[in-house]
Design goal:
Two copies of one chain form a homodimer. A seven-stranded antiparallel sheet of chain A has the order 2-6-7-8-14-10-11. Chain A has a six-stranded mixed sheet with strand order 1-4-5-9-13-12. The first copy, chain A, is built from 17 helices and 24 strands. In chain A, α13 packs across α14. With 632 residues, the first copy, chain A, is an alpha+beta fold. The interface between A and B is large, with 70 and 70 residues. β21 of chain A pairs antiparallel with β15 of chain B.
Chain lengths: 632, 632
């Protein structure tokens, strides 16, 4: 039985790079998003997310609401993700005022729940007679799922049951509706499945497990379900449309990752969790096949997924254009969730490597360094004049906006940063696992308590001190790290190594030091990816680097990097949140001032300057490019 | 007064490369397209183009039509372009049967014309009460324009006036409707303007000139016109939509080439023709600005224009992706028309160079070598598995289809090939001009008669013999040709040279020999084009080359060409219509079987084989790429 490291106030404290991000989320993002939900921020899209709950509560009590439902149909889920982020942030830093705010807010949510357990402010306020009539895009189950996740988080951190009880009642209602009463259909946007699994894991409630399994098993069994459900609406659903939400065939038969990328990875996350809990081999086989397809054929170097803005979707194998990439922030977060659940099935560094790739690159790029502006879409190239302008590039922006009417990404990122420990640590009957490196303390259920000290991803030494307990410890060695040294109490240890992890015995008082490879390195793409054949990227540790105009005379298009050229680690840049720049031997290519010329370009040696991809777009509108021309 | 070389049976005969294409059009394309129009070809889209005329004729006579209108609203124009192609083909090869077929057909067209001059089978059959109610997309003026062009061609070649009289009557009707009766609006799809100018040039009819000028001047004066006209239809037109058909502001104020590429260049063609005929400086200034914008910032190396399939349109400067390119065949033909009219304003090789680039690459690529299958869209890269499959690449196909429901391109290409002499030759008061090189004979109005012998674009010697007359001759020297020799009667002549043309005196009996540079060469793109920075292409003469899988072990993605490497001219390939291949020094790059790796790829020297771009996709489904990775 694998346990994701559960978080309680005592059990996890962080510092260093991740600690700073958690602090930013706590001090800036959470209050900012709260203000947005309360419509107190000038110049950003109105949310009404909280007033929707107040008004739904009035309807439940038989009163007249003050106003109609406002915003996207799935607005409740933004609030739920915010509660989750706020709850986890309390684990680092107790905050009575925030906790009080959460309690009052949870009261509002409880009041918006129907007697029978139904909870959804959109349908309660706007279409009370249309419940469950639109599983395709009604998002009732999606919103329920996020509120279940919020309930788990708040209970885990504070021990308070109110929201958890609300959502257990909701889950029981759903179980009755779909499993007992046999209501047809399944979630149009997967999410409740993974949430039900979290509730099950936390409470042992069997109906939650059964309902999650039911939704996974029924999905795609009757491909005609959604087309029938949607008759009479704006568009006629074709079989091709069913790929959009992975409903074209039963999940165990799905061969490739298709459709809306966020829906896909949320679905696979639940599948992987069920497989881990129930030893369902057929489900695990499907998960592995879909994992392979994503990570071997459909993933950007930044851990971004979803190559196109058209329906925010996967396309086909090896179609990975940088400039028109979608790479939704939420999709990379979902890929982390999927990876994290795959680790519960098999301890294999491949999963953790991808989890880290997605987090340190696409996920973090989703937020401005000051925590106040957000990218929904994360291209690997930005060329002002084309990006955001050409009709094919409208979805890729040159600047992070302050908020979105469809605001799924910002609170999703906040909750993931706040619960970073869940992805960093885990344990099973025999071993505690360190998947990711983050400064702070962590307490395991088996009695082991560790502290971790590191400047990672800018420092490459990770020091674990065993504060309490004894047993086996597994530390992941990333695939990118070529030179690794592991010391126990200052002495090199010969430790067992398997699938990207080293295993060693520890006891209280031990100090385990891992030193990873700190050298920047080039990365070459498979020549099967047409968009980037012959290109090269620069990385250091888990960080993918990019070249921005502001560091390179305003022009990154005419830069080419020398094969095998020196990559030198430059100074820490305080203005970039202490990011470390890399200098690369390059040539500046001067082409004639014509579109096409027979004159070979002049080339002059120069030094190109790269910054971590996640830190791009913090210094104004600017060219940016990850994959560079190479000179061999 | 500049005269495009008019074609009559005696005046122009061709042989060599162009002659073969004209023969193909005559013997295959014209009969094939006639069969399609008569719905006699199995497995291709039904056309009903001819029965629409028969049925419209019945309606005009007050009889019951046999069936409803069938096909695209602008189906009449496909027929018109076919008549034009067939008419010009008679100039090369008298064909009584074809001429008889044309005559009968013209009778049908005449019968479908209303008493008042109105002619459009769609509105006559399907929406008789909606005439002129939908200038935005009704295509009445567009179809009228194409029929006027057909009328000019048939009259020029055969001297028969019937269709010309029908269309003069139609033009007079339009003049009355728009100029005298002051009907609001202008053509949703520019075309009638350039056609009216052709009729004017041929007949001297002043109303045709006035109406063309009127449509050009009124366009975009009231940007609210189309949004008002379209109220109550499927979509609400915004100001942004008006860019689609260049109606957002008056033409003289338009700064960049925007919107639907075919509409754009058809419009500019008319503008350039009016400027040439009326010495309208403000119009010429606008034409030059738009020409510069296209050819310096928005044109593919193949002379393709229109970077996106979304509304078949221009996007923004330097946005020229190869794999998702639209590059409609018709748009490159339109660019030739525009270039040809610009030459009437100014003899400048720049225009003829672009005309040639568009013709020998994108236009010819629009047709399979056997004349039986056609591309509408001409990407610069084709990767089976992605091309035609990924949602962003659906418009780019891996194989030419046999026909299209919207069949504008095939007959458009046929008529252009059949009238190649119009683009190749011209004259003014003092000089005869040889813009393009095509074997055959040409007679000018000033009494000069030339024969031209050449294997161009595969032979680089062009021999002109002066059969009759004397005077000044101007021959274009293409910019790509670095080494040129001009001999008159075997002796090198010092001739005047200006803006890409050499001028020399000739008299009957003279033989002028031009020898152009036959060396293959590399072309480098501006580093401002993000999609192809650091890439290189191979050309020879006017031909852009591409690399196909079938010549390169099935894989062109892992090929890189050596900077300055040897390019050698290989054998003529009979199976490719006698195309000449080029061999290039290259390396084969082997990347690890992973998406991304820190392992530098292995590189092995090899020889890559290129074929002319226009000949691609004649040997099955296949990778294809124009812009190659370079090794410096």
């Amino acid at each position: 039985m694998y346990i994701q490291k559960q978080i309680s106030q005592k059990a996890y404290q962080s510092d260093g790079f991740i600690g700073n991000y958690r602090k930013l989320v706590r001090e800036t993002v959470i209050p900012y998003q709260y203000a947005v939900f309360n419509d107190q921020v000038e110049g950003v899209e109105k949310s009404h997310a909280i007033s929707n709950f107040i008004n739904a509560g009035k309807v439940v009590r038989g009163e007249q609401p003050d106003e109609e439902f406002y915003g996207e149909r799935f607005q409740d889920s933004d609030v739920a993700k915010w509660i989750e982020a706020a709850a986890y942030s309390l684990a680092d830093a107790p905050d009575k005022e925030l906790e009080g705010r959460l309690d009052s807010f949870i009261d509002l949510i409880a009041e918006a729940q129907d007697e029978n357990g139904y909870l959804d402010t959109y349908f309660t306020l706007a279409e009370p007679d249309k419940r469950w009539s639109n599983l395709w895009s009604g998002h009732e189950l999606y919103c329920a799922g996020h509120m279940m996740e919020a309930a788990c988080a708040y209970y885990e951190v504070t021990g308070k049951r109110k929201l958890l009880d609300v959502m257990l009642k909701n889950a029981e209602y759903l179980y009755n509706e779909f499993v007992i009463q046999r209501r047809e259909g399944w979630p149009g946007h997967p999410e409740v499945e993974l949430a039900l699994m979290k509730v099950y894991k936390l409470t042992g409630n069997e109906h939650c497990l059964r309902l999650a399994e039911y939704f996974i098993d029924v999905r795609g069994q009757d491909p005609e379900f959604f087309p029938k459900e949607q008759i009479g609406r704006n568009r006629v659903l074709t079989m091709e449309d069913l790929e959009y939400n992975q409903s074209v065939k039963p999940v165990r038969e799905q061969e490739t990752a298709v459709g809306h990328a966020v829906r896909a990875v949320y679905l696979y996350t639940a599948m992987a969790h069920i497989a881990a809990e129930t030893d369902d081999d057929s489900l695990l086989t499907a998960c592995k096949r879909l994992w392979e397809n994503i990570t071997k054929k459909r993933m950007y170097i930044t851990g971004g997924i979803g190559s196109t803005g058209i329906r925010e979707a996967f396309t086909v194998d090896y179609d990975l254009p940088g400039d028109t990439a979608y790479c939704e922030t939420c999709a990379s977060l979902g890929l982390m969730f999927f990876a994290s659940r795959m680790l519960e099935n098999e301890i294999n560094g491949e999963y953790a490597d991808v989890m880290e790739r997605a987090f340190y690159n696409t996920a973090l790029a989703g937020m401005q360094l000051d925590g106040k502006r957000f990218f929904y879409v994360n291209p690997l190239e930005c060329i002002p004049g084309i990006t955001g302008k050409a009709v094919t590039h409208k979805h890729d922006l040159t600047q992070r906006p302050g908020w979105y009417s469809c605001a799924c990404c910002p609170p999703n990122l906040a909750r993931t940063i706040s619960s970073f420990g869940k992805y960093a640590y885990g344990e099973n009957e025999t071993t505690v696992f360190c998947h990711l490196y983050a400064g702070g303390e962590v307490a395991f259920q088996n009695g082991i308590k560790l502290s971790c000290q590191t400047e990672y991803p800018y420092g490459f030494t990770v020091v674990y001190r065993v504060l309490e307990g004894s047993g086996k410890m597994a530390i992941r060695i990333p695939k990118w790290s070529k030179e690794n040294v592991i010391l126990r109490n200052g002495t090199q240890v010969a430790c067992e190594s398997e699938k990207g992890y080293v295993y060693l015995e520890i006891m209280a008082g031990d100090e385990v030091t891992l030193t990873l490879d700190d050298q920047p390195y080039f990365v070459y793409p498979s020549s099967r990816i047409p968009a980037i054949t012959g290109k090269v990227a620069v990385c250091r540790g888990p960080l993918v680097y990019c070249f921005e105009g502001v560091d390179n005379n305003g022009d990154v298009l005419s830069l080419a990097l020398k094969r095998g050229g020196r990559l030198s680690v430059a100074e820490t840049d305080v203005s970039l949140g202490n990011a470390v720049k890399i200098k690369a031997e390059a040539v500046r290519v001067s082409t004639a001032d014509e579109l096409y010329t027979a004159e070979p370009p002049k080339e002059e040696a120069c030094t190109a300057v790269a910054i971590p991809y996640y830190a791009w777009c913090n210094r104004g509108e600017n060219q940016m490019r990850v994959w560079m021309t190479e000179r061999v």
